[in-house]
Amino acid sequence: MLVPYWRLSNFYFFYFATLGSFLPYWNLFLKYQHFNAAQIGELSALLMATKIISPNLWGAIADRTGKRLKIIRWAAFFTTLLFSGFFFKSGFIWFMAITFGYSFFWNASLPQFEAATLFHLQKEPYRYSQIRLWGSVGFIIAVLGVGRFLDHHSISNLPLIVIVLFASIWLAALCVPEIKASASEKQAVSVFQILKQPEIVAFFAVYLLLQAAHGPYYVFYSIHLKQLHYSSSLIGELWALGVMAEILLFIYMKKLLGAFSLRRILLSSVFFSIVRWLIIGFAADSLYWLAGAQLLHAATFGSAHVAAIHLIHQYFKQQHQGKGQALYASLSFGLGGMVGSLFSGYYWEELGARLVYSVAAFSCLLAFIIAYFWVGKNSCDT
């Protein structure tokens, strides 16, 4: 069966174009709505918190029914429908309710699409990064375009941009063909037996800590740079620079996977995460240091994420791929992201950027220690 390369890539393009419009600017929109730092942190944490439940629920259903793309399509539809609630009312409680509603469905789609992509690739999993890079392209186009737009127009227009992109995700999902796991492969090992292995526990702990450390970046990076008098377009360009570095990494990822073990890639990614958060915390007034920190996004997210996808592909049997991807999303981006968002929201004004990013760096140091002693010593060679 031929791999539907462009249809898979199209979904990633629009999914991450939505993130490119959302992540750098949504908290600026919340600030425009007169929410304080703690409220912004709580709304961001709620967005992450739904990742704890939603991916696991939909992942279990997808593995049981085999209707992975049907779930993705309905999730994308209800995401668009519920997000439209931002146009009808304002206020913190209303924003909490709408955020919970649309993110419960939005967070269901990507983990299942990751599993669907690997099913389509079958014996060519190394091609994942060649497809995933189009998500990064979408992110760059969106983050630069929206940044320039907001330099000349009110940020009150942001929800309209985001909802158009949500609808595009739904349309892209309609074009991807369904594929089921091989009927010949039975569940010889239960998912609970897999999860009891010390290396699996350590793997999820590492990625939880990594994503917790990203909390101050996703929630307050743009606000921090605005306070240092960077323009919206320059902030968008800095976000885009990080993703451009990520694209270059995806292009050469096949060679890196052939040259280095997943263990080495993971350890390098975590080490550069420590460096990146210290730079942002202590040298954000220098554009050159900020640019260097953004180039490290290739490691702190790009190579770390690719290593995770391949490790999950190894750890979980084909019949458990949906659950494995869901657990990765829920424990790292969900629980880890929620902890990082809450911490940064509650302590940003009290501790300041330097101390908050220092805690993020320390979180990555703990992740490095756990990964060094427990992850991949015997099973991560590619």
Secondary structure layout:
Elements lengths: L4 H18 L3 H7 L4 H29 L2 H16 L8 H30 L6 H25 L5 H17 L16 H5 L2 H30 L4 H28 L2 H21 L4 H9 L1 H19 L5 H31 L1 H22 L8
Helix pairs in contact: 1-6, 1-7, 3-5, 3-14, 4-5, 4-7, 5-14, 6-10, 9-14, 9-15, 10-12, 10-13, 11-12, 11-13, 11-15, 13-14, 14-15
Name its key features.
about 375 residues, Growth Hormone, Chain: A, single chain, mainly alpha
Describe the protein's architecture and organization.
It is a single chain. The chain is mainly α and 382 residues long. It has a single domain, classed as Up-down Bundle (Growth Hormone, Chain: A). The chain has 15 helices and no strands. It has helices at 5-22, 26-32, 37-65, 68-83, 92-121, 128-152, 158-174, 191-195, 198-227, 232-259, 262-282, 287-295, 297-315, 321-351, 353-374. Helix 11 runs antiparallel to helix 15 (353-374). The longest helix is centred in the last third of the chain and has 31 residues, at 321-351. The protein is globular and about 50 Å long. The two termini are 25 Å apart.
- Mean model confidence by pLDDT: 90
Judging from the principal axes of the Cα atoms, what is the shape? globular
Give the CATH H-level superfamily: MFS general substrate transporter like domains
The assembly state of the depicted protein chains is single chain
Based on secondary structure, the structural category is: mainly alpha
CATH architecture: Up-down Bundle
